[in-house]
Design a protein that fits this description.
Pfam families: FERM_M (PF00373). This protein is α+β, with helices and mostly antiparallel strands. It is built from 13 helices and 13 strands. It has three domains: 97 residues, Ubiquitin-like (UB roll), CATH 3.10.20.90; 81 residues; 111 residues, PH-domain like, CATH 2.30.29. The strands form four sheets. The chain has a four-stranded antiparallel beta sheet. Strands 7-13-12-11 form a four-stranded antiparallel beta sheet, with helices on one face. Helix 6 crosses helix 9, helix 6 runs antiparallel to helix 11 and helix 7 crosses helix 9.
Length: 333
Amino acid sequence: MELRALLAGRSSKRQLFFLPGGLERHLKIKTCTVALDVVKEICAEMALSRPEAFDEYVIFLVTNGGQHVCPLSRCTYILDVASEMEQVDSSYMLWFRRVLWDQPLKFENELYVTMHYNQVLPDYLKGLFSSVPTGRPSEQQLQQVSKLASLQHRAKDHFYLPSVREVQQYIPAQLYGTMAGSAWLNLISQHRQQTQAISPHQARAQFLGLLSASPMFGSSFFFIQSCSNLAVPAPSILAVNQNGLNFLSIETHELMVKFPLKEIQSTWTQRPTASSSYPYVEIVLGDVAAQGTMQLQLEQGLELCRVVAVHVENLLSAREKQLTLPPSEITLL
């Protein structure tokens, strides 16, 4: 493919990449440009220069109107992908997203803060970062949710007090329904003086800082249709993060079952069967002595496999680094 592009006289082009929230970056790519090069260039704009940071971001190929999301390996030639997609699906998109969240958040760079804010906001508004209370939320939860709502309003560069309709857009639906809209508005107004004194950039940074303490912050979420493991409720929500595979209740978002990363031996996808419209992912869990296979049914099978692989590779890399360090430095990890 790379040779074909060269023979066609096409050695470079301006390629569009989408960051969370619809942010766009047009980058010049050449026949030798791979996904890692793009990650490095966008990271440089976010004032990130360490190799550890590059490992945390991935380029995704999105096709079929957003229905098919496939993470690209670090060595994939971008021009090859673009040339092929222009013939197969001209509406394709290339997304830049963070997958690993080991490195601490930074709040100085505006693009960095905006990109991360835009990535986590939709999952927050779905209520995925914390469990849903059965009754009225605790006072601490009410204060945090109202503060986060006030920060979202300021992040839009608004100074006025939000309307009840706007407030509803700033609060996860499961929580918003526990109180009247006017009660939420009253809580949010208590934070107005503080949030008015900061810039939209600072509001986004504070939002990230508060949300980063949530147990599922930094997770990639997947909707699981069914699971062969009887211990896993189905349907459920799968949160993949540095702690492993976390299956959450679809109603309360409480953690139901967890499998640590170190137990994951392999993953692979299976095509949909005649009786099913969704592909399967098979995950081998356990150790050398005892292993079992868990079969998951979901739409984003390839994405799940790649995200899990990124986390497992990171775990193995950390272990390898630990083994090669002198004893005096091991305790620093």
